[in-house]
Design goal:
Blueprint (H helix, E strand, L loop, with lengths): L2 H12 L11 H7 L8 H11 L9 H8 L2 E4 L4 E4 L18 H23 L2
Antiparallel strand pairs: 1-2
Helix pairs in contact: 1-2
The protein binds zinc ion (ZN).
Amino acid sequence: MSKEDIIKNVLQVLEIPTLSKTGKSVPNLILLGYRKAGWSAGGASKFTKKHCSNKPSQVKLLTYVLGLVDMKYCAKCDRILELEEFSNNSVKLDAKATYCKSCMKNIQDSNYNRLVDRAIRRFNV
Ligand SMILES: [Zn+2]
């Protein structure tokens, strides 16, 4: 399922319209931001205030909407995943890691390999 389809389903569950009154795509607004989605700043802010009135201003619309259905976007693999695919991280606003578990593992593996390579080069082991 594409990210757009997932967002459409989530909007339906939350009973948020998928099109603005002037026919602009709400999934695009959420995924691309108002400029790239062709929304005016005023229109986007009006829509958000009306349909997502509890969204804190520092939280992105994508993060907020997905959080309502226990999902999260991983910017590393560019996928929308269930919240349980992310490790806990109490430092973060949503108490979840930025990247999903499989991306975090790749990062840790490549860090490990980098350190091993460096040790081999330095100490000729
Ligand atoms: Zn990921």
